[in-house]
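@channel sequence for tomorrow's demo:
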Amino acid sequence: MRLGPAGQPQPHRVVVFALAGLLPFELGIPHRIFGRAKDAAGRPLYEILTCGLAPGPVQTDADFAVAVEHGPELLATADTVVVPASYELGPVHSEGRLTPELAAALAHVRPGTRLVSICTGGYVLAAAGFLDGRRATTHWASAEHFQRLFPGVRVDPGVLYTDDGDVLTSAGVAAGIDLCLHIVRRDHGAAVANEVARRTVVPPHRDGGQAQFIERPVPRPEVAGTTAARAWALDRLHEPLRLVDMARQESMSVRTFTRRFREEAGVSPGQWIVHQRVDRARHLLETTGLSMDQVARETGFGTAQSLRKHLQAVLGVSPTAYRRTFRAAAAPNIPSADGPSVDGGAAH
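structure tokens (generated this afternoon):
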């Protein structure tokens, strides 16, 4: 938390920049996700405010406007700025340039402020030069146009979101939920993010590298899915998981199961299992005093060396560094009731 004028801790301030033609769903995502994040004492971890190019009504892409109390000066007070999508970006979308009014508004953003876009909100960040030389994404249907308009941006058209440190971008609509949960997880750990997800009734974690456009996300009614196999695997993450055993849960051949799994989840069974195990390891590192060897066994990675390798690959930090960062509010030496998980090379 930052310090206020009297030296008192203040929640991290998130300012949502609402532009004409915005999508109400996306406008609400930061308020819903960040607004549900609380510390161990129940205090809000974020303060979420909204501003526009001027105080007053901002027209949405629906049949109503939203009343915004603050003008662009509020951007100067932000620790994080979020730009949701808009369908009325004018020359930003058609020519890749800011209007004078928009440029003046963004000039209020302080150096070092974390910048976040949802869907085509990335056009605003790119036109302002914030994405130059950076990896970014946007809605898959706009990715080719985005890359042509901003050749200096390294556009990744297939992922749910990108994290380039102080600049983060997401694909369309619901991927904004994934990105905001990722930010909460990055700021305060998996336990806080999982609680926000539970309260919001959404999956706690979809990895940023997961495909945003899955050819057949909803199976036809007459076609079996892989949901039961995933539930079965989650209950047995501490055991060796073989692809043939997962396929058997759905009475499928390994080949059919692998294809169907990727169609539904956007990743291979092996990738999915590794990420589930990493999530379980994060939870145990945050909430228990288990040794690294115990965490490795409980999460199915088998050895502390394997645990370290997978956390380094997925999170970019060692288990010890992760625990040191997020363990402060956790009660020591209390075993997790979450149960075990499995080692990394099980299913592919």
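heads up for whoever presents: The first helix runs from residue 24 to 35.
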